[in-house]
UniProtKB/TrEMBL annotation:
GO terms for molecular function: pyridoxal phosphate binding; transaminase activity. Residues 54-355 form the Aminotransferase class I/classII large domain. InterPro entries: Aminotransferase_I/II_large, NHTrfase_class1_PyrdxlP-BS, PyrdxlP-dep_Trfase, PyrdxlP-dep_Trfase_major, PyrdxlP-dep_Trfase_small. It comes from Clostridium estertheticum subsp. estertheticum. The keyword Magnesium does not apply. This is Aminotransferase.
Length: 373
């Protein structure tokens, strides 16, 4: 089976550990184990007392009842039995695609976006059409273009809401239009929802709450700041959940007793996590706004409190070369936009620890000055 290399992951695997200022990532500043355990005042001793006598067997195969209950609370209408735990959102996306896609199927994927969402279906033999997003349109795609792409036999539409790398958000009105187009031909809609906008004024529904053939995937990696436990999930209707169960048995057994235990703790404290992360997103976005205002070689469609952004760089050299040079010379890590098929841009992961962001942007600006001469 042929599959393209995963541009972003390949880049990060090679360069991530060389960074002094990692402003490339899309998670919100990760918690240390101690920080996340004590977020609600629990001491590490109390936390581990609950775990030390627990058998390190496979535990709950689909995720513990507490896990499923907590995840189900994130949706309006998904019972715990329709939640399946996965190895991260990557595992959830893979599970959905593995279960649904057969050779010859027609799939439409938002582009650029998270590469799994188009290259896995392609690798399974699907014909994948790109639904392009446009910078001049605030990185939104056009509904009339989706209407042109959809076919009577379209099996699946893949979206990332909010989108990596641009931070584009589809609000409910937009999502409902997509649902209308999909439901006319009975297509499924898979939405990777790992990036939740962290502002109270922005409410974005999960696709599973809007459409019976909607499939929502998510994880604790981005908005919840604990990518170090590999816990994600897939939420769907009962028929789909039963199908996913079947395929899941072949691809994973469980996420692990410890990971499930910590995941439940995170989810039970989700409001505290959101409060902490809202502060980071708001503070850091203000820093980025101020920086862009004063940096003539950068422009940006500002994300709406989503933890990833995609800067446009006015530089006379290839962006990947630029990113390699600045990493080697200054320790600043970005993801070059060509890794998302968009040259001339770079992913700026601005929701890292605030001091790292400030110093990284300072170094980036100083480095850009060399093109002014
Ligand atoms: C859209 C999207 N989905 C999934 C992932 C990976 O999530 P996880 O760590 O839960 O596997 C990423 C990571 O960058 C992402 O951007």
């Amino acid at each position: 089976m042929n599959i393209a290399s995963f541009g972003v992951e390949e880049w990060l695997n090679v360069w991530e550990n060389d960074a002094i200022y990692d402003i490339a990532g899309s998670s919100i500043a990760s918690f240390s184990l101690e920080e996340i355990i004590s977020i609600d005042g629990t001491t590490p001793k109390e936390f581990f007392d609950g775990l030390l006598k627990t058998k390190m067997n496979y535990g709950w195969i689909e995720g513990s009842p507490d896990f499923k209950k907590e995840v189900s609370k994130l949706y309006k209408n998904v019972p715990p039995e329709n939640i399946l735990q996965t190895n991260g959102a990557t595992g959830a996306n893979l599970l959905a695609l593995y279960s649904l896609i057969e050779p010859g199927d027609h799939v439409i994927s938002m582009h650029p976006s998270y590469q799994q969402l188009y290259d896995i279906p392609k690798s399974f033999g699907a014909e994948v059409d790109f639904w392009e997003i446009y910078e001049e349109n605030d990185w939104l795609p056009k509904l009339n273009e989706l209407k042109k792409l959809i076919r009577p036999n379209t099996k699946l539409i893949c979206l990332n809401n909010a989108n990596n790398p641009t931070g584009t958000i589809f609000d409910d009105d937009f999502l409902k239009e997509i649902v209308k187009i999909a439901s006319n031909v009975g297509a499924y809609i898979l939405v990777d929802e790992v990036y939740k906008p962290l502002d109270s004024s922005i409410v974005v529904s999960s696709i599973v709450d809007l459409y019976d053939k909607g499939i929502s995937t998510n994880s604790l990696s981005k908005t919840y700041s604990v990518p170090g436990i590999r816990v994600g999930w897939i939420a769907s209707n009962t028929e789909l959940a039963d199908s996913f169960r079947k395929y899941r048995d072949y691809t994973m057994i469980c996420a692990g007793v410890f990971d499930d235990y910590l995941a439940v703790h995170v989810l039970k404290n989700k409001e505290l996590v959101y409060d902490r992360n809202k502060k980071i997103v708001h503070t850091n976005l203000e820093i980025v706004k101020e920086w862009v205002k004063n940096e003539p070689r950068v422009s940006l469609v500002f994300p709406k409190y989503v933890s990833t952004s995609f800067i446009k760089l006015d530089i006379p050299i290839d962006v990947e070369q630029f990113c390699i040079d600045i990493l080697k010379e200054k320790g600043v890590l970005l993801v070059p936009g060509n890794r998302f098929d968009v040259p001339g841009h770079a992913r700026l992961g601005y929701c890292t620890h605030t001091e790292i962001l400030k110093n990284g942007l300072k170094e980036l600006s100083a480095y850009l000055r060399k093109f002014d001469k």
